């Protein structure tokens, strides 16, 4: 199934109107001037674009509370009722994946957890007098995402933390503001009929630094109403959604710093019924789903070896032909939920096994096939990029159960991609 990101997007229920003055055509992760503001020639730029000598002209950055001349206030409660219990664990893991976490899509731990953490170091300077640096702002921007297996809901905990400042001359950092602005798009082309998205009341937060320092975290809850079970009629009530965040830094005397698309998350709601395990839920669609099998696992060691050979040594597998390759490691497989088609693929694979090894009925052996009959890449794909092998029947059945458990654990629906990894 082609990824929904490549398709035509239709603006659904969205908070874009709240950002009409800010959201302008721009390259992602680049600060842009705001067209409705008279330029002052003074703006925030990334500190990495300045030389060390220019940075030395500023005082050393200090924690905001120190700059304000007071002890840091006790942060207000984080509205804990809306934050999943796994949030502290996700934050700790996120710190270990710094490179992925600071990317536009963040680090995707799983189909149900995501983390974005970006460290900002901005310098306030006069473009007309580059030697005149007037201030420096350092902070961390976080967005933790939680998709729920069992409810059509996705929660985000966003925050601005670890604020440090430096200011020279008459520049007053107490007037500086940071904004996190969220907007959404619904892909009506990939979604099922009449996709609906329910957004939080507040989709933007633009605050003075002191407010962020005292209340760093806020939450956003996105959901999609369901119409009851309709999966038997083919309506899985899928709603494909993209969430974008724009980051802003502002002050009354400077040109706004506007970074469109600083963070983006793609997620899907569904009411797919029993094929997904819990009948309804939500997932982050760009997360990598993977079936992992070990050659040391006595329950599936024969299945694992077969798949390993198909992926790494296809010349050892049947049917055999020059230049054979089998998908699943670098090319994804895609789930097929049509049981009639799966049965036909299984029958075709058994026919291939008998062609090579003869009649094995009455033995403990079964015909193992890879890619699996429950994928669109199975033996009836038409390109012969598959493999069959006789293995112990109990091993073959255990491998099938492991595959089905992976489908359910990741809410893999028809056409969803996944990969296969075989460990030694």
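Sequence proposed for the structure above (424 residues):
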């Amino acid at each position: 199934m082609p990824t929904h990101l490549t398709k035509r997007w239709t603006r659904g229920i969205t908070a874009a109107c709240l950002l009409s003055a800010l959201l302008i055509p721009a390259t992602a992760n680049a600060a842009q001037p705001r067209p409705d503001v008279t330029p002052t020639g003074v703006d925030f730029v990334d500190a990495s674009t300045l030389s060390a000598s220019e940075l030395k002209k500023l005082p050393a950055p200090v924690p905001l509370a120190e700059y304000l001349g007071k002890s840091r206030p006790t942060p207000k409660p984080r509205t804990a009722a809306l934050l999943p219990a796994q949030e502290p664990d996700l934050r700790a893991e996120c710190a270990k994946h710094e490179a992925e976490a600071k990317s536009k899509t963040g680090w995707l731990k799983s189909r149900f957890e995501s983390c974005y953490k970006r460290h900002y170091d901005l310098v306030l300077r006069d473009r007309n007098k580059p030697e005149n640096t007037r201030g420096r702002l350092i902070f961390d921007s976080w967005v933790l995402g939680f998709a729920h297996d069992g409810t059509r809901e996705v929660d985000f905990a966003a925050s601005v933390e670890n604020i440090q400042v430096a200011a020279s001359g008459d520049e007053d950092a107490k007037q500086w503001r940071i904004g996190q602005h969220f907007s959404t798009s619904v892909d009506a082309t990939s979604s099922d009929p009449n996709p609906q998205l329910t957004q939080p009341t507040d989709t933007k937060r633009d605050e003075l630094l002191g407010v962020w320092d005292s209340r760093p975290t806020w939450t956003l809850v996105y959901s999609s109403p369901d119409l009851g079970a309709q999966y038997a009629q083919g309506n899985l009530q899928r709603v494909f959604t993209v969430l974008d965040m724009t980051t802003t830094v502002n002050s009354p005397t400077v040109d706004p710093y506007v970074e469109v698309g600083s963070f983006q998350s793609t997620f899907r709601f569904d009411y797919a019924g029993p094929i997904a395990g819990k009948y309804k839920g939500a997932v982050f669609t760009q997360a990598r789903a993977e079936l992992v099998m070990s050659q040391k696992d006595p329950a599936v060691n024969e299945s694992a070896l077969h798949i390993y050979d198909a992926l790494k040594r296809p010349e050892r597998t049947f049917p055999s032909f020059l230049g054979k390759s089998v998908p699943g490691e670098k090319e994804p497989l895609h789930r097929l939920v049509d049981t009639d088609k799966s049965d036909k693929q299984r029958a075709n694979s058994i026919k291939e096994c008998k062609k090579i090894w003869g009649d094995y009925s009455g033995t403990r052996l079964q015909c193992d096939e890879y890619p699996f009959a429950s994928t669109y890449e199975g033996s009836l794909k038409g390109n012969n990029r598959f493999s069959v092998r006789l293995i112990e029947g109990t091993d073959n059945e255990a491998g099938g159960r492991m595959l089905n458990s992976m489908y359910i654990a990741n809410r893999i629906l028809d056409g969803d991609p996944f990969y296969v990894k075989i460990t030694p």
